């Protein structure tokens, strides 16, 4: 990784903890993030794990800063290794350089060549030995102490975070953890100040109590509940399962229901059934599940039934890389259905934004009576971030409903100026109709007549195309004749790159598209007014987003595309280099 | 937020005794696409008779189907209806019933829709035991696509898609329903609409998942099925609640014994949410540092 040619606008510190599965590095990472939040810092924690159910390799990747962070830095300041088992598998995800410090346990053996190649400074702390000397002591807690000490996290905040994480296991385990962390910190102090002073984070004034620690998957679940979802059908799939596991206990508390389905064909159809019955409904899945749901999403389009499907994207095609991120499902989400099937596709632009975007998706789906696909990804879904609490968005599910009527008078699919027609639900007398995937006339009666097909196609197109989606269609920031156009989990790195080049006097703007379907060509053209060069950034091998933009928009003459498959995220330095 | 949901899902009507309606009130004015002589006409009549006998307000009934000749049923009724994609009627019905337990939900379909493309849902609907009545009009053929063998077709039945027959043992839907946990298992013949209506009414009334196979001849592609009229008979044994006894009978009968063949007492699956007014605030608070 080249040195950053542009100064970083924020002081940040990046830490990685690695160990074999079961060594507890993910727990250690969560404790460090919690401690940092208690110390007034923002932070981001992602994990990199292998495909093994238990065991295998695991890494916790943290970035801490006085300001909000949504992506990892170009490099890591510190790598603490409990062991090196299979560590070379994620060496590419933990870029080191000669300024990095590697703290390794002498019992773990040599640093793997893939990591040693960057010539980091190396120090030894006998974390296993520290743990062994403490009854019920664990090496990962010593690693917490080492990392916290080197990153300058206050002892009290670390102790409180450990209490929160370990307290339930009882006094002895807690005491052992606190002691191991203390000894780790002491060992780190003996190494001297190892992280550059200008990179050491300082606690901001912010009150720790105000902020949230949340994963993107949890935020999506909360956004759904805020939006009014009261039914979810679930089929487990990595990396979306946490949405469903969060909703399972949450929904009954707000009067809703979650049911585990036998497969994704069932889960999407259960959600369709609940929505047909009047209850805002959701399911969550990943690429393979979305592929199975596509036929039924077409049914929801044709029968004008609202529902939300969250696709937490992972590496594809096929089983692909289930535990790692990629933006490869744009095409199937936008174009996957057979026939002309207008529907909504939205993508959160950050971990915390999973809440807003999902809530907005529920609102839009219900209002426009159509399915909405929310394209999150493994990075956003499983990243844990410290965020400012999202405001209460006035975006609830509200569906146009008819008044009780005379038998035969109700026209479920009546042509209206907006294209949206009042949707009866069972229980309303006189409005009985059959929701149908067959083409139909205004009453819902199946019809193969050319004029009915054309009229209903146009109704379904117009209700989406003519809706005013407002400012939320994209996050647009900055000015300048250069624009970075991106989406989803690439947004944070692009934003940071724009800020970095600004510090060097290069003015660029950021356009992160949240509403992918229906496309908003006029709004995009306005956002790009005065732009002479566009840089498209996406995590897709075939540049699906670039092709999507080309299909809908006249782009400026100079277009560069920074794209590659997952799982390696774009680093701000790469995007900044492409901007300069 | 809650108010708008309440608006979307109307409150149950006041529990007053509904006025009885004739079966004709449960039929719509849409003319069926079925062939002359199709058994499904009689099943439509039987279902309307059953709904009438139960005095169910039509707006409080949802009839759900997938794809196939018999899956055209909902449009021919004056109830709420859902005509979805091939094989997925049971999940749709499950979603309706779990979110609107006060509704009566009936699922209608055929042997291809239910036992082939929808086979997995059939197993799990029996196992889940949601309070649904599932009526399968079994004609042992794909009629809508003009005559291909289905899972219940006899092995030697000749067709363009399987010249000389499939050679495959037919699926035994009743035995499988019983083994998978259905709470009621019955067989009817479309040629006897009054008895069929009575069994459908029982299937609707009985809690949990009730499976009714209705032998419904396809006179167009299976003219031989006209002979079913002479083969069917009331089951020579009385109804049982013993699954072992029912299993023996279902595994040994010739497929033409009619009646309720098993009626169990499993509790239906119906989650009951326990809402509290400050739940959302508590959920949000759980993320605060």
Please characterize this protein's 3D structure.
- The complex is a heterodimer of chains A (580) and B (289).
- The radius of gyration of chain A is 25 Å and the shape is globular.
- In chain A, α1 (25-38) packs parallel to α4 (139-151) and α15 packs across α18 (572-579).
- Chain A has four domains: 13-210, 3-Layer(aba) Sandwich (Pyruvate-ferredoxin Oxidoreductase, domain 3), CATH 3.40.920.10; 217-387, 3-Layer(aba) Sandwich (Rossmann fold); 400-457, no CATH class; 470-579, Rossmann fold.
- Chain A has helices at 25-38, 113-116, 127-132, 139-151, 155-166, 171-190, 216-227, 241-253, 264-276, 287-303, 330-335, 353-368, 378-382, 450-465, 491-503, 521-527, 544-552, 572-579; strands spanning 13-20, 42-49, 57-65, 78-81, 101-104, 121-124, 212-215, 231-234, 257-260, 281-285, 307-313, 344-346, 371-377, 384-387, 434-436, 474-477, 482-486, 508-513, 515-517, 533-538, 558-563.
- Helix content of chain A is 35%, strand content 19%.
- The two termini of chain A are 17 Å apart.
- In chain A, β2 and β3 (57-65) form a beta hairpin.
- With 580 residues, chain A is of the alpha/beta class.
- The mean pLDDT of chain A is 93.
- Chain A has an eight-stranded mixed β-sheet.
- Chain B is of the alpha/beta class and 289 residues long.
- Chain B has a single domain (35-153, 165-271), classed as Rossmann fold.
- Chain B has ten helices and eight strands.
- Chain B has helices at residues 2-8, 40-53, 89-99, 111-117, 119-128, 173-180, 193-205, 228-231, 243-252, 279-285; strands at residues 61-65, 80-83, 104-110, 133-138, 184-189, 210-215, 233-234, 257-263.
- Chain B has an eight-stranded mixed β-sheet, with helices on both faces.
- In chain B, α5 (119-128) packs across α6 (173-180) and α6 runs antiparallel to α9.
- The longest helix of chain B is centred in the N-terminal third of the chain and has 14 residues, at 40-53.
- Classes of the chains: A alpha/beta (580), B alpha/beta (289).
- At the A-B interface, α1, β7, α7, α8 and β9 of A face α1, β1, β2, α3 and α5 of B.
